[in-house]
Amino acid sequence: MFERYAPEHEVSSVEEPRFTDPAIPSHACCCPARPVVRVIMPPTAHRAHPVDLWLCGHHYRASLQTLLVAGATVEDLTLTPDQCRAHYSGAAAA
Ligand SMILES: [Zn+2]
To answer: Contact 74/38 with Cβ under 8 angstroms?
Structure first.
């Protein structure tokens, strides 16, 4: 009577690094959600060392402009290393 929904090209979320890499925390720094990005804040006059922030998608988008102004580096946790290389090499060529 019911057919199981199984799209052919759907990527399982369990294949994303943020679900499989034990170095990635299960909760973001900003809220209880799972982090989507790792933001590296550069050193400043008041902070001698860079600082990692693990942000959910909502808080990342909400603070993106401030992060860019501060010179932050962003690592997308939803991409595998191969996808990341392909994404950024494509962006550099465009
Ligand atoms: Zn958040």
So the answer is: yes
Q: Around Cβ 20, how many Cβ atoms within 10 Å?
A: 10
With a threshold of 0.85, does the pTM exceed it?
no
As a whole number of angstroms, the distance between CA 82 and CA 63 comes to 27
In whole angstroms, give the CA distance from residue 20 to residue 18.
6
pLDDT in tens, 37-75: 999 999 999 999 999 999 999 999 999 999 999 999 999
Tokens encoding 61 = 């988008």
Neighbours of ion ligand 1 (CB under 5 A): 28, 30-31, 56, 59
12 Cβ contact partners less than 8 Å away, ≥ 6 residues apart: none
Ligand 1 centroid from CA 62, angstroms: 9
Extents of the domains making up the chain: 23-93
